From TrEMBL:
It comes from Sellimonas catena. This is Stage 0 sporulation protein A homolog. GO terms for biological process: regulation of DNA-templated transcription. The modification 4-aspartylphosphate is found at D54. Residues 5-118 form the Response regulatory domain. One of its GO terms (cellular component) is protein-DNA complex. It holds the Pfam family Response_reg.
């Protein structure tokens, strides 16, 4: 499975550490640059799917970095900044930024905006796969051994959550938090058990001995990395 690669251009060490850890937990691969010069060097050496760019950098300037990046690469950019006045927003967007979020921001809101930009720009068109299960996130199609598997909206979201946190143990409370916002009905602990059972019946060769979504006793569930 290919991972979405993020370049974080930020000079605040605390933000770098906390945001990198959070985004990795969300399934992103993150590299950082503390200034414009290092950012451009990384872009020459590697391919990235999205750039998170701070406006005020100790080395260089976010606006000039945006102009330089956009002149050479087709990579979406989201500005991170403490400047929330209208002029700053308009300036950033006119320079080609794809979105703009002011500090302090909620990490989950940032991730939501990132996924929206990735979807809008077509940068998240990567197939997800585990054993003989494949998911096309753009078309919303799941297949098993090449044959389409029909999942409900909540089953599909649950499967994506496992892909996004592949290799991590997901507690039941973590899973409930992730699927709460798209559920058309109240999802409690018992309902979650039912949906995991249904999902396993559709994607596992033997639902009684799951190989894709495994139970980690006393902790939760995990999709193998």
């Amino acid at each position: 499975m290919q991972t979405t690669k993020i370049l974080l251009v930020e000079d605040d060490r605390l933000i770098i550490e906390n945001l990198t850890e959070f985004l990795k937990g969300e399934g992103f691969e993150v590299q950082y640059a503390e200034g414009q010069e290092k950012a451009m060097r990384l872009l020459e050496e590697q391919e990235f799917d999205l750039i998170l760019l701070d406006v005020t950098l100790a080395q260089g300037n976010g606006y000039s970095a945006c102009t330089q990046i956009k002149s050479r690469y087709e990579i979406p950019i989201i500005f991170l900044t403490a400047l929330d006045d209208e002029f700053s927003v308009v300036t950033g967007l006119e320079m080609g930024a794809d979105d703009y979020i002011s500090k302090p921001f909620r990490p989950r809101e940032l991730v939501s905006r990132m996924r929206t930009v990735l979807r809008r720009t077509g940068r998240n068109q990567k197939m997800l796969s585990c054993q003989d299960i494949c998911v096309d996130p753009v078309k919303g199609i799941t297949t098993k051994k090449g044959e389409e598997v029909f999942l409900s909206a909540l089953e599909y979201r649950l499967l994506l959550v496992f892909f996004q946190h592949r290799g991590m143990v997901m507690s039941r409370s973590m899973l409930l938090e992730e699927i709460w916002d798209i559920a058309g009905e109240y999802v409690n602990d018992n309902t979650l058990t039912v949906y995991i059972k249904r999902l396993r019946e559709k994607i596992e060769d033997n639902p009684q001995e799951p190989k894709i979504i495994k139970t980690v006793r006393g902790l939760g569930y995990k999709m193998e990395g």
